Amino acid sequence: MRTSLIAVQSPPYPRMDFDTALKLISNAMSVTCSRLPNDAELALFKGSWHGQTYGVIADESGYTSSYLTRIVGPKFWKELSQALGEKVSKTSFRAALERRREVKGSGNWIEGGEQPGSGGAGEQRSRVIDWGEAPDVTAFYGRQTELDALTQWVVTDRCRLVGVLGMGGTGKTALTAKLLETLMEQAGNPFTHIIWRSLRNAPSLDDLLEEIVPFVSDQQEPEATPKRLIHWLRQSRCLLIFDNMETILQGGERAGYYRMGYADYGDLLKRVAESRHQSCVVLTSREKPAIVGELEGVELPVRSHPLTGSPEAARALLDAKGLNGTEAEKQQLGERYSHSPLALKIVATSIQSLFDGEIALFLAEDTLVFNGLQRLLDQQFERLTELEQTIMYWLAINREWTSIT
């Protein structure tokens, strides 16, 4: 009855524009769902706002229509309904946004204040999230054991520094992004500030802190230094993710130590690891930072997780690529590349283009390394010490198990 009454009345304010609507739903979902809309959801929201069909949205966004209707849509409309406090759909959400608009500026959930039903100052404050360059992990398979372990370390065991380590292409970034998404979906997520930063372009520590310190201090801290960062990590329970840390490490004979001009990162991680605070830094790297190796332990607040290939992820990836083959052939293909997600993506593309998607034809060629795979292995090999490279050569020559001597 209330909906019908409001529907026939003219709003006392101009009709909402798209940018205002996008900001409104982003703020609402950040508070009630503890996350922001991902790329696919943004494409769906924009298309729906302009009255487009799923087919048109799919054509313009690059996603498939079935993906938007079966996977993205149901979850998005459900969470948007929770955020707006009433059930909405592709055709009804605009009216709901107009009704909610009138509460903007009153210190409620729209502006990032307390969640609906909170009891005031004694309740947990709403979370602030900066996803940075975190990837979309909607299509993520397997890794449940790893996710459970990392969640235990980060949430329950209150580790201060956690490393997710492994060769290029094993899925370190995807696993960490899935961990973050999993935490967002869990009730009782304890982190009030979550920020993701990629070190792929090797930013200086000063530049990194200029972004992180204001974020974790809610724009209160004018001094972006390691000391002040630790101060704010004590005030709130924050989760910081540093992705691609190997870009600031030397590799080779000085593996684990920092490139010239980046030693201050080591000092920061040492402070994070040894200082008393309630926050956590998770880093991903192809190479273990020396400070992690020095301070880690099973019962200590510094730990690392070596990541290898995933049979579940490998099988799901081969199915998603539409390759043809028996169960045994798919298993053999996965084992040949140690179930590495990136390696199998490269191989699957070649199988599609050169072997018409037939796994058996590719296996018959008995060709292991080519094109992108060679570059991937070269990048990892270059990070080894001279002794490690020599050992790799002899292992390749022997082709069988051999002794250390």
Quick synopsis:
With 405 residues, the protein is an alpha/beta fold. 50% of the residues lie in helices and 8% in strands.
Main β-sheet description: 6 strands, parallel
Computed over alpha carbons, the radius of gyration is 24 Å
Beta-strand percent range: 5-15%
Low-pLDDT runs of 5+ residues are 1-13, 103-125
Mean pLDDT: 79
Secondary structure class reads alpha/beta
Count of DSSP strands: 6
**How many separate helices?**
18
Q: Please give the alpha-carbon distance between the first and last residues.
A: 84 Å
Secondary-structure element order, as H and E? HHHHHHEHEHEHHEHEHEHHHHHH
Question: How are the SSEs placed, and which strands pair?
Answer:
Blueprint: H1 2-7, H2 18-32, H3 39-49, H4 54-61, H5 65-84, H6 93-101, E1 128-130, H7 144-156, E2 161-165, H8 172-185, E3 193-198, H9 205-216, H10 226-235, E4 238-243, H11 263-274, E5 280-285, H12 290-295, E6 302-306, H13 311-320, H14 327-336, H15 341-354, H16 359-365, H17 371-381, H18 386-398
Parallel strand pairs: 1-3, 2-5, 2-6, 3-4, 4-5
Helix pairs in contact: 2-5, 3-4, 7-8, 9-10, 13-14, 13-15
Tell me what you see in this structure.
- There is one protein chain.
- The chain has 405 residues and is α/β, with parallel strands linked by helices.
- The protein has 18 helices and 6 strands.
- A 6-stranded parallel β-sheet has the order 1-3-4-5-2-6, with helices on both faces.
- Strand 4, helix 11 and strand 5 form a beta-alpha-beta unit.
- The N terminus is likely disordered.
